[in-house]
Write a structure and sequence with these properties.
101 residues, alpha+beta, 4-stranded antiparallel sheet, 3 helices, 42% helix
Length: 101
């Protein structure tokens, strides 16, 4: 996967297909709300597995019934890259399977 930075307009265009994700400066972010703390913890573990598989790790925060991610690529100077969008796509699919909103 390329570690070349994406332009803000390309990032915004690509995020249109990822509901709930937003570009905030040099990161893409999303907070998922789940039905319980246990469900949120389970999603956090699932996301950690995806991150290890992709060898691409985000800031990942577990709340009572929320899971928040903030993603960018260190190898690209902290810019948003294809790696980030791939991670976001995989996380969105996992979150849906866990009943996240």
């Amino acid at each position: 996967m390329s570690a070349e930075p994406l332009s803000p307009s390309e990032t915004d265009r690509r995020l249109e297909s990822l509901p709930g994700w937003a570009r905030e400066g040099d990161r893409i972010t999303r907070t998922f709300r789940l039905p319980s703390h246990f469900a949120a913890a389970a999603l956090t573990v699932h996301i950690a597995g995806i991150q290890d598989e992709l060898n691409h790790h985000s800031d990942l925060t577990l709340g009572y019934n929320t899971v928040a991610l903030s993603v960018h690529t260190h190898d690209a100077g902290g810019a948003i890259t294809e790696k980030d969008l791939t991670l976001a796509t995989r996380v969105a699919a996992a979150a849906s399977a866990h009943g996240a909103e």
